[in-house]
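wait is this the right file?? whatever heres the structure
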């Protein structure tokens, strides 16, 4: 399928998986709307894209719900359509549930869940009206099972499945697709930016993340899955076996996961 001339609005485009998606899509002729909070970093990503002038830098804190309609208007003023809304912005955590202040759980939920829902609701009506489009949601393998030190993060990613599986059923036949992407360990700044129990950044590169999938490869696999119209995909190494272990042998999974320290 040719992607030339399509428009992809990517949140989290300043770093990691979102950044690599922007670069890869620009090489396939897609016009990319680059959103995240850091304008200067987005500009650098734009300059690294194929045909920099074809893309729009749109700085945005996606948790600021009131700013979303105006942001969407800027996208429609420039391109008049959004073919792919790619909700990649997200934050993870490092900390036991018992030690983590509620504000951290709420911050994670606001960004990973509510902001994704709010931006989708901003863009969806026009997609349905056009009878075409694709909502891409970035979950995680931890959207399929929970693990120690990731309670709020796993909860926020599980919530995405409940919401977007329901939405997919509601809009079936409208021409708009919903693809939930579940990455495993991917070599990005995720653990550096992760929230600790008091809300300060963790600041370290985890071994698993450092040894994880290259984000360029992750981006290519995500694009392939989107083009195939998949409902849910696991973009991961062997750690994805945990999804199947939980599904088919939940008792064994429970014994295994409590011994796993996700470093
Ligand atoms: N890396 C992994 O191992 C892994 C595994 C499973 C799932 N994921 C998921 O993959 C997605 C991308 O994460 P990543 O690994 O690429 O991490 P990353 O390198 O830390 O990137 C996170 C992105 O989110 C943006 N962001 C954070 N807060 C924002 C806000 N309030 N408004 C707008 N943008 C915001 C950041 O940009 P600014 O700071 O410029 O705003 C950055 O571009 C996330 O949803 C994450 O949960 C990652």
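ok assuming it is, sequence goes like this
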């Amino acid at each position: 399928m040719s992607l030339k001339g399509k428009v992809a609005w990517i949140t989290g485009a300043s770093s990691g998986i979102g950044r690599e998606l922007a670069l890869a899509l620009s090489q396939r002729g897609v016009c990319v709307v680059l959103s995240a909070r850091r304008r200067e970093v987005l500009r650098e990503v734009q300059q690294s894209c194929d045909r920099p002038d074809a893309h729009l830098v749109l700085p945005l804190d996606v948790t600021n719900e009131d700013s979303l309609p105006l942001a969407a208007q800027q996208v429609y003023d420039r391109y008049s359509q959004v073919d792919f809304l790619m909700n990649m912005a997200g934050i993870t955590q490092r900390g036991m549930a018992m030690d983590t202040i509620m504000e951290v759980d709420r911050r994670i939920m606001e960004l990973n869940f509510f902001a994704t829902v709010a931006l989708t609701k901003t863009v969806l009506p026009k997609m349905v009206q056009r009878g075409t489009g694709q909502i891409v949601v970035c979950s995680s393998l931890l959207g399929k099972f929970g693990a120690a030190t990731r309670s709020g993060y796993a909860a926020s990613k599980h919530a995405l499945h409940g919401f977007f599986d329901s939405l997919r059923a509601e809009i079936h036949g409208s021409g708009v697709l919903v693809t939930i992407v579940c990455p495993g360990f991917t070599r990005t700044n995720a653990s550096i930016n992760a929230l600790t129990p008091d809300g300060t950044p963790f600041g370290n590169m985890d071994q698993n993340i450092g040894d994880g999938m290259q984000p360029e490869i992750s981006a290519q696999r995500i694009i392939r899955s989107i083009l195939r119209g998949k409902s849910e995909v696991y973009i991961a190494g062997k750690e994805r076996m945990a999804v199947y272990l939980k599904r088919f042998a939940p008792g064994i999974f429970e014994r295994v996961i409590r011994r796993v320290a996700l470093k």
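The two ends are 39 Å apart (CA to CA). so i think its the right one actually
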